[in-house]
Amino acid sequence: MKRNAFYAQSGGVTAVINASACGVIETARKHRKEIGKVYAGRNGIIGALLEDIIDTSAESKGAIAALKHTPGGAFGSARYKLKGLDVNLAEYERLIEVFRAHDIGYFFYNGGGDSMDTAHKVSEISRRLKFPITCIGIPKTVDNDLTVTDNCPGFGSVAKYVAVSTAEAGLDVASMARTSTRVFILEVMGRHAGWIAAAAGLADQIGARAPHIILFPEIPFAEEAFLARVKVCVERDEFCVVVVSEGLRLADGRFVAEAGTRDAFGHAQLGGVAATLAALVRSRLGFKYHYAIADYLQRSARHVASKTDVEQAYAVGKAAVELALAGENAVMPTIVRKSNAPYRWTIGKVPLRRVANREKMMPRNFITKDGFAITPSCRRYLEPLIRGEDYPPYRRGLPQYAALANRPVARRLAEGFVLK
Amino acid sequence: MKRNAFYAQSGGVTAVINASACGVIETARKHRKEIGKVYAGRNGIIGALLEDIIDTSAESKGAIAALKHTPGGAFGSARYKLKGLDVNLAEYERLIEVFRAHDIGYFFYNGGGDSMDTAHKVSEISRRLKFPITCIGIPKTVDNDLTVTDNCPGFGSVAKYVAVSTAEAGLDVASMARTSTRVFILEVMGRHAGWIAAAAGLADQIGARAPHIILFPEIPFAEEAFLARVKVCVERDEFCVVVVSEGLRLADGRFVAEAGTRDAFGHAQLGGVAATLAALVRSRLGFKYHYAIADYLQRSARHVASKTDVEQAYAVGKAAVELALAGENAVMPTIVRKSNAPYRWTIGKVPLRRVANREKMMPRNFITKDGFAITPSCRRYLEPLIRGEDYPPYRRGLPQYAALANRPVARRLAEGFVLK
């Protein structure tokens, strides 16, 4: 009994989330006997609630294949968390109405820890509201903070971007240090976990001497130790490259970048943590500085994506469909590391309840004792994840992305729905 | 009568200045009858003044070839401007001492408008101080603001980086806009000229809808018009991508980012112009925003360099040596555009005095009447400059750069020199 599938993207997007979409759609298309059409929610779960659904079967084979090298979320994402079944039953009843109206029997939800919570809640519909649906989560997060899975699709590419950018900027600052910039600060993402900042540590393998200092959200910021280290680096190498997680905190738990209208050091506050640290370096050490804030550039940088990451993103999309067809429910495919050298991995699975709403921090033994660098174990963990290049096709100097029609499916419900 | 050559890098470095170094060294090595060794100044002209000189003849053919894909300045650069011959004769006398001690008959100086001034002043040594030396400038600047030459090596790659990054971030923000970020601001370099910001305008050719607004240093910032435009874009597209030159100014000439401790709008000031605009958008329109500051990442981004740019950077280095051997003096090779479609260019030359200390702003007809976008003529000018990809070799996920020994030449002068 063939039923349709619903796929949606959730939370912050990545350079490779569309590769997972590609994995889902291409694999479903190979199982036309079991799966009808693949519908996509416009703006994630909101598309389901509002019955704003895209028919991916209208897209050509080539357009779907091009998703593999297209950053962003091709169907739109959403930051929208379903409340519990007991709190907002209306949302679940609405989902069932929409799923029933469009004969949806498979729910594929592509996101991070919060999204796995949503997927888990939707999976409860089957049991508690007696609407049969197969729910599979698909891991995605640049933050690399999902539990159980060895790593998260999306992370490898941002890690590669950060490592490459740190190496390049390191060479730049090294050239300028004699008469100009001494301290360069790169602010990267990672509100709670320092995985992205850690990836910058790979840059020193290629002779750039950078980064000299990494500041992790897991390690409370120690102003004096930091300044002393900057000074030592500038004295030794003429320059100092600092990579800092946006989520850097003081010992009392406040974010360095958000501790009041004035920052934690009493300076007026507008920018993020990079601006705060730069002002500190300037006022206390007098060094000329520059800083960069990578922000969305880092997570959308498909032009320098990790091939490993693209392959894994595709693989978890494909595995999600295969797990559904194998009768699994309320699970998420995981990436299982089999060995470091040579790097080998395979796909596993985990119940959604075990990954929902959890976060995986950097283990303390991945950070050096002084708190400013990564250890050899961390390096061994990170290094395979940035391996390989997978360039998008270019035309006249610019990448060519998937151009989807995103054709809406005709609405079948008389009633709309108001998001709370 | 064979004499040695001195090559130095000056000012802010680029992703391809080492390609020019490669062009100089490889070409000089082909003319061993006329040119002895190629020496490089450690940290630009300072290396000459301090007799801190690198012997590039100690480098293997492979190491020199690898300069072509290595960002930063391989021998160190400097922000150091020679004063006039009449003001600081001691500097020129010192240069002559060093040049004489090392039998230097060719001076190749790789930089922007200020550096062409230095090269021009050094060229006066021949005539006014009777020390025979051939001085050739080699154009380099990400700002693209040298006069006479159609474009400047270094610009094409930063232009490609900015166009690609804008397209990628545009796709990201488009996915998030429904429930999260509405306005994304990317701050790029360009203190006086808007060429780099203009390059972002190419991104809209690939369906990203971004950028919606470009803010040029040539166009005084009009707060109300800007806010009105942001509002229109968000209403129409759900989101708005703004690309802003760091050098954006108010009508009274003050930089938007530096107009007092409080910014021009009365907000506390720490960050650059992106932070200022973001705070303005938030306070006046209430939209959630993100901003990125590309800073050094943009000018060192060799991983996404323009092939055209790499070729031109190499070509001006090669041409500098050939001009010197042809008996030219006090000139700079230029890039001459022969046609747009197909794009054809050749190498010309210009006397240094015609490019020293001058800046080429964006022509007004390259910016739309409303001041927020680029015109078709601008597009025709920019588009060929970002064409082609020229990836560095990678190993284990990271680019492999030139590893130079940078062997110092033994000092021959008893006296040191104190920089003023």
Order of helices and strands of chain A: EHEHEHHEHEHEHEHEHEHHEEHEE
Walk across the major sheet of chain A and give the strand order: 3-2-1-4-5
Question: Sheet bearing the most strands of chain A, described?
Answer: 5 strands, mixed
CA radius of gyration of chain A is: 23 Å
How many DSSP helices of chain A? 12
Instruction: Please name the two chains that share the biggest interface, counting residues whose Cβ lies under 8 Å from a Cβ on the partner chain.
Output: A-B, 85 and 86 residues
Oligomer: homodimer
Write down the overall geometry of chain A: elongated
Distance between termini of chain A? Answer: 35 Å
> Segments of chain A where pLDDT lies below 50 for 5+ residues?
259-270
Quote the average pLDDT of chain A: 94
Question: What order do the helices and strands come in, and which of them pair?
Answer:
The structure is a homodimer of 420-residue chains.
Chain A: E1 3-9, H1 17-29, E2 35-41, H2 45-49, E3 53-55, H3 61-66, H4 89-101, E4 104-111, H5 113-128, E5 134-139, H6 155-176, E6 183-188, H7 195-200, E7 213-215, H8 223-237, E8 240-245, H9 273-285, E9 289-293, H10 295-299, H11 307-325, E10 331-339, E11 344-351, H12 376-382, E12 394-395, E13 398-399
Parallel strand pairs in A: 1-2, 1-4, 4-5, 6-8, 6-9, 7-8
Antiparallel strand pairs in A: 2-3, 10-11, 12-13
Helix pairs in contact in A: 1-11
